[in-house]
Design brief:
elongated, about 0% strand, 7 helices, mainly alpha
């Protein structure tokens, strides 16, 4: 963990990767600190990518915090990570990036919101299709029961 504070950015990055891969219980806290405190924007950007790979909702608040990073590259990486996560709880924070000083960040914020909306729409469509299928199955069972009752009455 001490290597994550080394003066050499290459050493810090290698230490961050090692922490991430070992699943050290305290690794998250160190990585979250590096995300906001490391002096090298390239490392902060790379940590965003490391954290995004985890697909863990607990990472989202830390990514959201990084939307205020001084580096546009880090903010862009955060927006990519949030789009990939599909976590709709990040939509308000992403909307804030629509007012970013960098045009590329504003554009990426719009693209990210579009991606989240598309995922949401896809999820809703899938739920509707599942519901409709279950309704058809239920209606078929009811129809079969009615036919069985009618057949029993005729006997």
């Amino acid at each position: 963990r001490a290597s994550t504070r080394d003066t050499d950015s290459t050493v810090r990055w290698e230490a961050a990767q090692l922490l991430h891969s070992t699943r050290d219980p305290e690794a998250d806290a160190v990585l979250f600190d590096m995300l906001v405190q490391d002096s090298a924007s390239a490392i902060r950007k790379n940590i965003v990518s490391l954290l995004a790979r985890r697909k863990d909702p607990a990472v989202t608040p830390h990514l959201i915090r990084a939307l205020s990073d001084t580096s546009a590259d880090v903010r862009l990486a955060v927006l990519d990570a949030l789009a990939e996560s599909g976590d709709l709880t990040s939509a308000d924070a992403i909307s804030g990036a629509l007012h970013d000083s960098e045009e590329t960040v504003r554009l990426k914020a719009i693209q990210t919101l579009n991606a989240l909306q598309s995922r949401r729409d896809e999820s809703v469509r899938a739920a509707q299709a599942d519901h409709e299928q279950k309704m058809r199955e239920w209606e078929e069972k009811v129809r079969q029961q009615q036919q069985a009752q009618e057949a029993a009455k005729k006997k």
